[in-house]
Amino acid sequence: MKLIHSPLHALHDGGMELHRGELVPCYEMPARVDHILAAIARAGWAVEAPREYDDAVFTSVHDADYLAFLRGAYDAWRAEGRDGFMLPGAFPARGLRRDRVPTGLHARLGYYAFDAGSPIVAGTWQAARAAAHCALTAADLVAAGERSTYALCRPPGHHAGRGMLGGYCFLNNAALAAQRLRDAGMARIAVLDVDYHHGNGTQEIFWDRDDVLFVSIHGDPNTEYPFFLGHADERGAGAGEGYNHNFPLPRGTDWAGYAAALETALGHVVDYAPQALVVSLGVDIFEGDPISQFRLGAADFTRLGAHIAALELPTVLVQEGGYAVAEIGDNVASVLAAFA
Ligand code: OKP
Ligand code: ZN
């Protein structure tokens, strides 16, 4: 198994998020990667650098105007004489216009963001770009015959839509990997999202397509972030109808409850008979996670890895969430061990 990592992730740092009405330091922090790298080193695995890609590759799953905004957002902020982190304060919700992109910086920030929890700092674009390069490299290696790869992506990606940032996500790393595998000639790709939070961005990107299956197990959006997507009745549209499967589970779900949903979810993947699998690997389903409410213990990540690896599919694992920083490395390594 090949593991891909870029130190450029650390350029995305220093942000605060609006969490339950309070401005707090981001739970999504560079130290998460340090702990994952330490666990990888303890396991005796090597990491390698991502390849470089032209920015045009991001238009495979993102809108050009959104990418232009992301690339230039912080320079525009600096041009206003500001430093520190950028957060939006107003969004085009119900009854407001979203058929035209506003010109002002704060207006565009609100237009492209869907929460006030995903600060942009000076290094955000470079870090998000490097994370996407890790996912693309991991996909290219699998397309070239590697059985499994792991992209240590930070910032994460599964909340980022075609033209939308949020949930600490800017570029959708898993979607880019899935599309890359399609572009390499694999006819059907399955995405399995096990992060605690519904992968709304990935769902949106592949919503009307039958060539990428999206299957997600997550906290019930009635009470859990991202709140407005992730229900079981969301099944895709047009050609994509029936190729989207959501498994919202209640707060407090433990391995027994999780494993039942996982079995059904994996059944959908098997029925689809994909050429490759992309896993959005969030380990915030851990019982000690500070912002999530499932009750999986450390040993359950070994079980999770074994169940996914048993599919025996060429697999790209993409890092998503996980905010119990001290335990994140061991939990990730426990999943990877089934593939290594
Ligand atoms: C990203 B990933 C609620 C704040 C929620 C966003 C959580 C993003 C999780 N008051 N903050 O899916 O792990
Ligand atoms: Zn999450």
Automatic annotation (TrEMBL):
Matching InterPro entries: HDACs (IPR000286), His_deacetylse_dom (IPR023801), His_deacetylse_dom_sf (IPR037138), Ureohydrolase_dom_sf (IPR023696)
Pfam families found in the cross-reference section: Hist_deacetyl
SUPFAM superfamilies in UniProt: Arginase/deacetylase
Domain of life (superkingdom): Bacteria
Domain Histone deacetylase: 28-338
Entry keyword set: Hydrolase, Metal-binding, Zinc
Signal sequence region: none
Transmembrane segments: none
Listed cofactors: Zn(2+)
Family of the protein in this entry: Belongs to the histone deacetylase family.
Record's protein name: Acetoin utilization deacetylase AcuC-like enzyme
Organism of this sequence: Lysobacter niastensis
